[in-house]
Amino acid sequence: MKHFDVIVVGAGPVGGYIAGALARKGYSVALLEEHREIGKPVQCAGLVSPRVFEVLGYESGIVNKVRGAVIHSPTGRTLGFESQKPKAYVIDRTEFDSRIVHDAVDSGIEMKLSSKVLEAGYHEKGIIVKSKEAGQRVETSANLIIGADGCGSVVAKNFGFSQPKEVLAGFGAQFVGEYTPDKGFVDIFVGNNVAPGFFAWNIPTEDGARIGLCVTTNKHGPRHYFDSLQKNKALRERMKHLELERYIAGVIPIGQMKTICTDRVMLAGDAAAQVKPLSGGGIYLGLLAGKYCAEVAAGALENNELLEKNLREYENLIKNDVGKELKRAYALRKIYRGLKDKHLEEGFDILGDEKIRGFIAKSGDIDYPASLTKAVLQKAPKLMKFAGPVLKSLI
């Protein structure tokens, strides 16, 4: 049975990033991925902030730059927000993920594709992982295991971690062809008959668009709402020269978990529900947490201090960095989930003020949207009627 310092499960961007970071510090690392190819199947809309590339130290997979958004109300009214510079980048997830993992391989990790983890647990050597590779059962041991294997993580289940507060179901598609509207704008569609509990999107790419949505638990699944979305008049106009290339489906965990580490075990990325509560985006937050994960893991391995009390520094670093933002954002999410369409329309009336829209367009931050709450409420005090007591206490 082969032994490593660390086994990382899941070769998405977060798992690949952590594996590479630890390998560069001199530790032996195995990266296990159940799929045959990195970055496939695609389960993400692929919209990220410039900070993602700041964490990585390089740019990769960019296919479009976004400087604004058009938000569509339940009745079809629109609010436009435009910045003078790009606020977000649209990426090719396969290319993006592959670059991160290839860098990790170049740094010395052992990459194992088509390696499906069946079971993980404690062993006299620390951790033992039982997996299936090319039809064969394989056992591997390590001093530390890091679960970066997404929502429904096998690592999280095997070591008894709690579940995220919510799990959103998503469905969408990649369309290709001539996209005639301004590619610098994404569309956001809200409404309880559009995407209950969340929103729908239209994200232009270099040769088409990605259109999709997420919904909370509902009697109808996300495909039902996706099919209905195709009838939206504004969206049909944008899609008139586009053809379906492939469907995209997945789930998104929302809400911080009680703990993301225990003895010899750490979770990161979607496996740790490291996802922005308002947008469902997980790449920036996952990479940021991944940086802290690798930092704490390396120190614990060096000192052979792999108990939960030592690994808890990982949680503390995240809390000190983005804890307040995530708490505010989840409070906002709970308020949003309780809004009826008439409330959303009323919000459009309030936010229609040109000065307010200009302020949001200039100061808005897709990674830290909740940080703007206090300033927006001061400029648009009528919105306070929607702010619950928990949110008011946070601002």
Whole-number count of domains: 3
Largest sheet descriptor? 8 strands, mixed
Please give the CATH architecture of the largest domain.
3-Layer(bba) Sandwich
Q: Which structural class is indicated by helix and strand composition?
A: alpha/beta
Please tally the β strands and state the result.
18
Q: Per the principal axes of the C-alpha atoms, what is the gross shape?
A: globular
- Average residue-wise pLDDT: 93
Our count of helices gives 13
Write a structural description.
This protein has 395 residues and is α/β, with parallel strands linked by helices. It has three domains: 174 residues, FAD/NAD(P)-binding domain (3-Layer(bba) Sandwich); 119 residues, D-Amino Acid Oxidase, Chain A, domain 2 (2-Layer Sandwich); 67 residues, no CATH class. The chain has 13 helices and 18 strands. The strands form three sheets. Strands 1, 2, 8, 9, 10, 11, 17 and 18 form an eight-stranded mixed beta sheet that branches. Strands 6-5-13-14-15-12-16 form a seven-stranded mixed beta sheet. The longest helix is centred in the C-terminal third of the chain and has 25 residues. The chain is globular and about 65 Å long. The N and C termini lie far apart (54 Å). The model has no long low-confidence stretch (mean pLDDT 93).
